[in-house]
């Protein structure tokens, strides 16, 4: 991996995290990094302020790491992409997608925080899955297994470059008879190919037309690399799905999605096709994020902020989200589903909204 993405120079560390074996291992991985003791991984003003200084964010994303202890462990019911959202073993991200909602909790530089109490988290998950028993009926998450999303607040493929937390989760789920891990990713990390997941971890490579990705998916692996990785990950024992997201409506969008589906079809073999499924998620944007993006990446906002096409909706945390207008959106979803049925008929769509 190039130091362009990660080149850790400074680690903000909670003392309790440094004492745990995973904390020690992370610190040993970056022996030259300067250590800064912090009382809480959530309150580090020098990392989280300065909302429009993008050059500073990118430097922080590349050079800073936070090592903390995850205090509250819960598995939140979800029911759409996964049955449950697992407690995070990391949050924050070294990449910088213009539509990303992950920074909402931590300010926009949003560097990776790794949680060192992985044993507590894996123990919690094993107990939680044990309490669920056998899945009573198939649903769109999975026909048999309870699915736990392990990457809601970070990108696990990048997290795996920092610590063994993701590997521990993959190995945990390998041994759980009734449960499966799942995470979406925009980064190809071939280290994961050696972990022998035995079908109990689902990787969802996120895809969008390269024309959109070039403007929106900043610091991620190129789309053609993600498609090219699918067969390798299937051969290595992962279940591989695709997240067709976010779908951005603009002039020519359907033509570019057709080209993307053709590239997907040409890029994968029979084994991948036999198990492939997709989530289709149309763009949700956010007014505050729009304001921030205008300060550093207005070109992205030409794609993301389309008031003529969108309607506002207040989110649970009180901020304003925008989505494509209800009447028109059904037509967009139907058009993309028709395209999928025509170009990649084997691609089962688990849900689309
Ligand atoms: S890869 Fe995911 S978590 Fe990282 S910036 Fe992009 S959308 Fe956000």
From TrEMBL:
Gene3D superfamilies: 3.40.50.12110, 3.80.30.30. Keywords: Lyase. GO terms for molecular function: 4 iron, 4 sulfur cluster binding; DNA photolyase activity; S-adenosyl-L-methionine binding. InterPro entries: rSAM, SPL, Uncharacterised_Spl-rel. GO terms for cellular component: endospore-forming forespore. NCBIfam families: lyase_spl_fam. This is Spore photoproduct lyase family protein.
């Amino acid at each position: 991996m190039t130091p362009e993405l990660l080149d850790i120079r400074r680690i903000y560390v909670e003392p309790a995290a440094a004492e745990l074996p995973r904390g020690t291992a992370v610190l040993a991985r970056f022996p030259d990094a300067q250590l800064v003791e912090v009382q809480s991984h959530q309150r580090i003003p020098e990392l989280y302020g300065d909302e429009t200084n993008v050059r500073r964010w990118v430097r922080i994303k590349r050079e800073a790491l936070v090592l903390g202890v995850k205090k509250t462990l819960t598995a939140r019911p979800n029911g759409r992409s996964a049955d449950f959202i697992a407690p995070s073993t990391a949050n924050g991200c070294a990449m910088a997608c213009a539509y990303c909602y992950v920074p909402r909790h931590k300010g926009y530089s949003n560097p990776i925080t790794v949680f060192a109490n992985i044993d507590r988290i894996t123990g919690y998950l094993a107990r939680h899955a044990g309490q669920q028993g056998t899945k009573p009926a198939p649903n769109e998450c999975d026909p048999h297994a309870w699915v736990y999303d392990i990457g809601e607040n970070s990108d696990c493929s990048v997290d795996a470059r920092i610590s063994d937390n993701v590997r521990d989760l993959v190995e945990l789920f390998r041994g759980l008879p009734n449960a499966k891990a799942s995470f979406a990713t925009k980064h190809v990390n071939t280290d994961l190919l050696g972990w022998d997941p035995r079908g109990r971890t689902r990787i969802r490579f996120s895809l969008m037309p390269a024309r959109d990705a070039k403007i929106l998916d900043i610091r991620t692996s190129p789309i053609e690399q993600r498609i090219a990785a699918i067969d390798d990950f299937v051969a290595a024992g992962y279940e591989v799905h695709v997240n067709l997201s976010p779908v951005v409506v603009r002039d020519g969008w359907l033509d570019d999605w057709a080209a993307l589906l053709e590239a997907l079809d040409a890029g994968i073999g029979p084994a991948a096709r036999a198990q492939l499924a997709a989530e289709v998620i149309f763009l949700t944007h956010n007014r505050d994020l729009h304001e921030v993006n205008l300060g550093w990446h207005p070109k992205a906002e030409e794609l993301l902020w389309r008031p003529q096409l969108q309607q506002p909706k207040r989110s649970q945390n009180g901020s304003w989200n925008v989505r494509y207008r209800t009447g028109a959106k059904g037509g967009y979803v139907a058009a993309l589903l028709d395209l999928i049925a025509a170009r990649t008929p084997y691609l089962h769509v688990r849900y689309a909204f």
